[in-house]
Amino acid sequence: MNMSEHTHHASLVPQVDHRAGVAAETARFVATLSDADLATAVPSCPGWTLADLVKHTGSVQRWFSVLLRSRIQEPPRTREVDLRLPEREDGYPDWLAESATVAADAFAATDPDLPMWAWGVDQHARFWARRMLFETLLHRADAELALGLRPAIDRSLAVDGIDEFLVNLPFATSFAPKVADLRGPDRTIRFRTTDGDDAWLVRLRPDGFGLDAVGAAAESADATVRGTAADLVLLVYGRLSYRAQAFAHEGDEDLLTHWFANSAF
Questions:
Q1: I want to staple 246 with a disulfide (CB 3.0 to 4.6 A). Which of 60, 63, 80, 231 is the partner?
Q2: How many C-beta atoms surround the C-beta of residue 31 within 10 A?
Q3: pLDDT tens digits for 87-118?
């Protein structure tokens, strides 16, 4: 996918304040944890408890903050960061809240338009704030799902999150190796919102895949999935099945099965 296509597509995406979003989503996550048993299993992250989920989310925030402060220009050689994790798990919610403060300090010290290395498309500091926001939002939703709650996700955030996921997914093979299997003989999948006029067309080619910005609103696709933006962002991350009642789908079922078996991270 060339950058002009990305720019053309990005204009369709609502403007979201990613830095403020990190603070708001972390606060929602922390509020979700009040009175919760941190030993509760998280079905959407097999093998994890709520404590693991909190530790992961806060660790990501602190790790990205280190990357922002050091203004990395090449892939980092180490993931070591002083997490300052409390010894007792009952201190984890406050520690997560503090992680968002660490992130806010890093954001304040870094111009979003500063050129920086990133593993995805956007080679600027703002990549890391956007990525941190959706990492936090998704795991807040995981916590709610684990506690039997239905995640509420702001529509503009959800639309931006779907876009952020699909734009960067082709570059995620270093930590999501199955992504390398997402290829095909020119097959297309469309994701379309039912609570707005947003559409994404993913084109699988023999050598890989990417967003086809120009064809997003065109009529034909080999498979289409429709749902609200909030449900679609959970779908692309593998938290909901396209067969769930929340979605209407049509077209090549094998193509959809192949996509979802290899795309979630």
A1: 231
A2: 11
A3: 999 999 999 999 999 999 999 999 999 999 99
**Longest pairwise C-alpha distance within the chain:** 56
Q: What does the pLDDT read at residue 13?
A: 59
Query: Could you identify the residue written with the tokens 């991270």?
Result: 265
Please give the model's pTM, rounded to 2 decimal places. 0.93
Give strand pairing partners of 251: 223
